[in-house]
């Protein structure tokens, strides 16, 4: 494993075998573990084996691995717990080591309420409404296409 290990990182501690985790699946570049502070039964994290704070700074091979392991793990969660769907989102701010949350969720649960609240804010915020205007969308699309 060509992992860069950081002593102060809890995920690096797990990957280095210095901290316990319930491993669900792994390959050469990624590992899925149970989250020890779950939002729901079956909540897993998929970690990059290399210490990289942001997923978009991984190599193409590492990104492919991360999402392949996430997909396989999401299917395991779906089959074991039969949620409506498995929510996936990338984190990194609190623990700056690339990881993806996989949370089984159903209508009305904590995560559904959270994202429903975000959607209401997105639809009602005047500041965000300006981002939906045609000229703003054209400007953003052009800027991203240039980059």
Which structural traits does this protein have?
alpha+beta, 147 residues, five-stranded antiparallel β-sheet, HIT family, subunit A, 2 domains, 5 helices
Secondary structure topology:
Blueprint: H1 10-15, E1 23-26, E2 30-34, E3 44-48, H2 60-81, E4 85-91, E5 99-105, H3 110-124, H4 126-131, H5 134-146
Antiparallel strand pairs: 1-2, 2-3, 3-5, 4-5
Return the structural class: alpha+beta
CATH class of the largest domain equals Alpha Beta
The profile of the biggest β sheet is:
5 strands, antiparallel
Given as residue ranges, the uncertain stretches (5+ residues, pLDDT < 50) are: none
Describe it for me?
- The protein has 147 residues and is of the alpha+beta class.
- The protein has 2 domains: 1-106, HIT family, subunit A (2-Layer Sandwich); 107-147, no CATH class.
- The chain is 42% helix and 19% strand.
- The chain contains 5 helices and 5 strands; from the N terminus they run αβββαββααα.
- It is globular.
- 24% of the residues are buried.
- The mean pLDDT is 90.
Structure in a nutshell:
The protein is of the alpha+beta class and 147 residues long.
């Amino acid at each position: 494993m060509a992992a860069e290990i950081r002593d102060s990182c809890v995920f690096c501690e797990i990957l280095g075998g210095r901290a316990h985790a319930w491993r669900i699946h792994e390959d050469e570049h990624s590992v899925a573990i149970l989250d020890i502070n779950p939002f729901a039964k079956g909540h897993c994290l998929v970690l990059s084996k290399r210490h990289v704070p942001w997923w978009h700074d991984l190599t193409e091979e590492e990104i492919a691995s991360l999402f392949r392991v996430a997909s396989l793990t999401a299917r395991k969660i779906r089959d074991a717990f039969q949620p409506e769907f498995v929510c996936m989102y990338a984190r990194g701010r609190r623990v700056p080591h690339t990881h993806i949350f996989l949370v089984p969720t159903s209508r009305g649960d904590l995560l559904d309420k959270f994202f429903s609240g975000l959607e209401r804010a997105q639809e009602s915020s005047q500041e965000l409404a300006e981002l939906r205007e045609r000229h703003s969308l054209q400007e953003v699309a052009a800027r991203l296409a240039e980059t």
